[in-house]
Amino acid sequence: MKVMVRFFASLKEQLGKDAEEIEVPAAIGTVAALRAHLVKRGGDWQAVFAEKKLVRAAVNQEMAQPGAAIKAGDEIAFFPPVTGG
Amino acid sequence: MKISVQREDFDLTTEVDSIRKNNPRVGAVASFVGQVRDVSMTLEHYPGMTETSIGKIIEEAQGRWQVMDCVVIHRYGELQPADQIVLVAVASAHRGDAFAACEFIMDYLKTQAPFWKKEHGPQGARWVEARASDDDAAERWQDPARKAG
């Protein structure tokens, strides 16, 4: 299935891109599974998404926990903890 | 109710007037202005999600306190020391609701709204790291004792 993945702040800089439409196996049904899938790309991806890194996510522009479900066509964003205000 | 995510500066008096002047039932306006401390910075945000998340925070505040009207403005882009970054202003009949709702909205903005600060200090640029104390500030509102009766 295809999902749109977006990156913000330090993640965007480290990966050198702000968005990518990716094809993932249908078995990848959660934010955590997608993250693990991205780690497997190695290199910068592994560095950014390694398990111990504090990465937050949103699904269709709503804050999402690692266990949140994802489906084809979703927009999933990854970013560091927010620092506004 | 006004939510604005903008590059431009804002004027406190204009914004406060917009939520109090035409409503004689308002008895209190509490406002908070955040400004850039020490070093210049660039603020990035997630267009679309930012406005939605601020809207949800305001809804949550309305469920807890009497919020007759409110304004939330958050700037993004390049900002210099002493520039205003954020404004939260809440109008209510009484000060208790106005103070509490204003502080609540500000605390939740810090942990829920998708903004990221990059500071440009003497040692170069660096992304500001989130502070645990901000999470604590937002979490204390989950204590039922703090909720409005």
What does it look like?
The complex is a heterodimer of chains A (85) and B (149). With 85 residues, chain A is of the alpha+beta class. Chain A has a single domain (2-79), classed as Ubiquitin-like (UB roll) (Roll), CATH 3.10.20. Chain A has helices spanning 9-15, 31-39, 43-49, and strands at residues 2-7, 19-23, 56-59, 62-64, 75-79. Chain A has a five-stranded mixed β-sheet with strand order 2-1-5-3-4. The longest helix of chain A is centred in the middle third of the chain and has 9 residues, at 31-39. Chain A starts with a strand and ends in a 6-residue tail after the last strand. The mean pLDDT of chain A is 95. With 149 residues, chain B is an alpha+beta fold. Chain B has a single domain (2-115), classed as Molybdopterin biosynthesis MoaE subunit (Aldehyde Oxidoreductase, domain 3, Alpha-Beta Complex), CATH 3.90.1170. Chain B is built from four helices and eight strands, in the order βαββαβββαββα. Chain B has helices spanning 12-20, 49-64, 95-112, 132-139; strands at 2-6, 28-35, 40-45, 69-75, 77-79, 84-92, 115-121, 124-127. In chain B, the strands form two sheets. A four-stranded mixed β-sheet of chain B has the order 1-4-6-2, with helices on both faces. In chain B, helix 2 packs antiparallel against helix 3 (95-112) and helix 3 (95-112) crosses helix 4. The longest helix of chain B is centred in the last third of the chain and has 18 residues, at 95-112. Chain B starts with a strand and ends in a 10-residue tail after the last helix. The relative contact order of chain B is 0.22. Chain A binds chain B through residues 6, 8-10, 54, 58, 61-63, 77, 79-85, and chain B through 34, 43-46, 48-49, 52-53, 74, 85-86, 106, 109-118, 127-130, 134.
